[in-house]
Write a structure and sequence with these properties.
2 domains, 164 residues, Elongation Factor Tu (Ef-tu), domain 3, mainly beta, single chain, SH3 type barrels
Length: 164
């Protein structure tokens, strides 16, 4: 079982057991749905989402069996996880963490390895790569990233002069 971190419970909301979760998970629409199982804290306590709504910057949930604020206070400041197997992704979809360790290919030459995926801003994703023992950032857009092959663990890129 592989757990995936999706956010942190930062507060309660109201008196009926609703929780505020801060999450920047890339597939919020697939996991914040009634009936989905979350695993809370270091002990990975299983809870099932009863209701969900987005409010300001928070993902607001209630869990099945909880109707009072006092019942959910135990979850304040706890991390929230899901099981990777529960996340049903299409063939074209992948988690950022799935890209780490992939080979980077340019013009049929292996030039490096993905070491991390970072964000310069909410909509500006970057591939952090080790190329020639240097840390290089490659913008994650169609001009630079030509193809991602999850099965072969290869990312094909087209870099510009001076990038590495």
């Amino acid at each position: 079982m592989e757990y995936i971190y999706i956010g942190k419970i930062v507060n309660t909301h109201g008196i009926k057991g609703e929780l505020r979760i801060l999450s920047d998970f890339q597939f919020i629409n697939k996991v914040f749905v009634p009936g989905f199982n979350f695993y809370i804290g270091k002990d990975k306590i299983k809870e099932t989402v009863k209701t969900y709504r987005h409010h300001k910057i928070f993902e607001m949930v209630t869990f099945v069996g909880y109707t009072d604020i006092n019942q959910v206070l135990k979850y304040l400041n706890e991390d929230v996880y899901i099981l990777k197997d529960d996340l049903k992704l299409n063939k074209e979809e992948y988690l950022d963490s799935d890209l780490i360790g992939m080979k980077i290919i340019e013009n049929d030459n292996n030039i490096g390895t993905v070491t991390d995926i970072t964000y310069a801003s909410k909509n500006n994703k970057l591939i952090e790569a080790n190329i020639n023992n240097k840390k290089v950032y490659i913008p994650f857009n169609k001009e630079f990233v030509l193809d991602i092959n999850l099965q072969d663990r290869v990312i094909r890129v087209k870099l510009i002069k001076g990038m590495i």
